[in-house]
Amino acid sequence: MTGRTAVLTGMGVVAPNGIGADDFWKATREGRSVLAPIDREGCDRYPVRVAGLVRGFDAASFVEERYLVQTDRFTHFAMAAAGLALDEAGLTVDDPFGIGVVTAAGSGGGAFGQRELQELWSRGPHHVGPYQSIAWFYAASTGQISIRGGFKGPCGVVASDEAGGLDALAHAARAIRRGTEAVVAGAAEAPIAPYSMVCQLGYPGLSTEERPERAYLPFAPDAPGFVPAEGGAMFVVESESAARARGARIRAQLAGHAATFTGAARWAESRAGLAHAVRGALAEARCAPDEIDVVFADALGVPEADRAEALALADALGDHSARVPVTAPKAGVGRAHCGAPVLDVAAAVLALENGLVPPTPNVTTSDLGLDLVTGFARSAELRTALVLSRGLMGSNAALVLRRTP
C-alpha cells in the first residue's frame, strides 16, 4: 500500500428532498420533512403507508436513452448522481484503467424485473426483453457507470446490507491507497414498487404509521420504526496529492472506516458491534474520541435499536458521547437502504463545509442521553464527522470524515 490519502472531489445527490447537492443541503439544513403517503401504482394495498419519494426526477435529463431502456430506476439514480459528481470533480480520463467504480445495492432493479415478469406471465417468453437479465441485478449500476464513462479500473459491488453504502467508500479509499487514480463510489436505491415493497414487509421495525409526521421518529420514546425511501449519492474519490496537483476542490478526507457483523435484527448485540466499528474507524483515522465534532446517526427508529446505538456511542466515545452533537437528517427523507448512509455522508460533507449541524426532522424529544439536534440547525466549529450505519441483516459500519484546509 502506498499510504496515499483518499479524498472526495465530487459529489452527486438524488434524494427525496432535493436533486443536486445545493437543493439537498438547503432542505437538509432547514430540517424539512418530505415523507409522504405512498402513491405509486400497485403499492396501495400494503401496510407500509409512508415513504421518502424522489419527485421531479426526469431520468432523460441525466441519462442517455440507450442506457435508460436497459436499466431500472435505481440505476438511473446512480448514473445521474455519478454524472453530477464527475462534472463537479472535473475529472478527465487519461488512463481508463486508472479509474474504477464501486457501488452498494440492497434492493436491485425491482420495478424493471416485476414489469418483465408480468409480461412473461401474461403474454409469454417472447415478450420479455433481453435486458431483464441485467437490469434487476445488484451490479447494474456499477456496470453501467463504468461502461458509460469508459472506466476500466477496479470495479465492484458491495453486498453488505445497508452499511454497504459506507463500505463502498471504504473500498474506494483502499483502491486509492493501492495506486488507483480515482474511483466513482456510492449507492442508490429505488425500492418503492410493488415487488420491492412486498420484499420489505418481512423487515422487523418497518413503520406502519399512516401519518407522515409520526411515521419515523428516531431516538424518540414513541418511535414506531422506520420508513423506506429511494435515492442515494455518488462521489469521486481521489488521492489528495493528485487532487491538489490538478487544482481540484477537495470536499473532505475519507479518514477512517471499520465494519462488523452482529446478526439480523439483534439490536441489543449491535451495541457491541457498532462500538467496535467506531473504535476501528477512529483508530484508522488516528482520531481521539473527543475530536469527533458531529455524529450522523444510523437512527433506525426502533426503540431497542436506538438505545443500542446510544450505548454504543457511549462505549466508544466515553463522556464525549453526551456532549457531541448527534443528528439524523434521514428522519425527514426515510431510509434509502444502501443509499441512506451515503446521503448522510453527503450531508456530513456539507455540514463540515458550512459549520452547521442539520436538525433531526419531526423529532422533538429524546431520553437516551444524546445531544440530539432537533428543531433548527446548530452552528458549530466542525472539523471531523462520524457517520454510522447498521443493516437490517446485521452489518455495522462507521466512517470518519475530516475537513481539509
UniProtKB/TrEMBL annotation:
Organism of provenance: Kitasatospora paracochleata
Keyword Acyltransferase attached: yes
Family per similarity comment: Belongs to the thiolase-like superfamily. Beta-ketoacyl-ACP synthases family.
Identification of the protein by name: Minimal PKS chain-length factor (CLF/KS beta)
Leader sequence segment: none
Keywords: Acyltransferase, Transferase
Known EC number: 2.3.1.-
Molecular function GO terms recorded: acyltransferase activity
Residue ranges of domain Ketosynthase family 3 (KS3) in the record: 3-403
